[in-house]
Amino acid sequence: MFTLCKLLLIVIFTTVFSCLSGTYPPSYCIRLETDVKNASGSSIIINITQNWAPIGANHLFDIINSQFYAVPSAFFRVVPKFVVQFGISGDAIQNTIWNKTILDDPVLMSNIVGTVSYATNGPNTRTTQLFINYRNNSRLDLHGFAPIGVVTTGLDVANTIFNPTPGKNTGVDQVAYSTEGNAWILVNYSQINFIKKVSITYDCPRSYQSKIQVTSSFVLFFKFIFLFLSQYD
Q: Considering the domain 27-219, what is its CATH architecture?
């Protein structure tokens, strides 16, 4: 019964929110221009889809259209075969401005390889930090990590991002980076990779996004079936 109620709440949530989201694009791509050295280039393109996680997608749209990425932003946490994390501005003032949490979205997609989700510190604590899944991390679905999009170009670039803290899965000191900015991180991690520029484009490869959506929905469908049946064991 709990699972059925949860599904009903998700349907109601997405229906109501879609009526309130007319000022935001239903789908857009963000291009991350990085300083990563890779044979195929240095750009990472992420297709953001509003109906996957509308609160998160719209919040990111606002972030990108602000001055948050006006200066380079470091890939401050790399966990091989798990995730790469970014979303702290190199400008400490911007981190203060955007240090406000947003409500969680229901998890409608699965954290499969290439999907992008907000990092959290518990329920309703999302701010600006995001991570790219290096592998199938669908176990994160049950912990409330709701994907907002998927890497359509440059996943190989993401996989070659320099790990500034090998052997330490928590990455650099996020509080120090947030409050002291790029001046601090460059002194302490001279080889760290950066996002040099972020821009929005609407020329997104729809076919790839649709393929990921089908795969992700397939994973979540069987997960809900498993949870539903387990209530009657």
A: Beta Barrel (2.40)
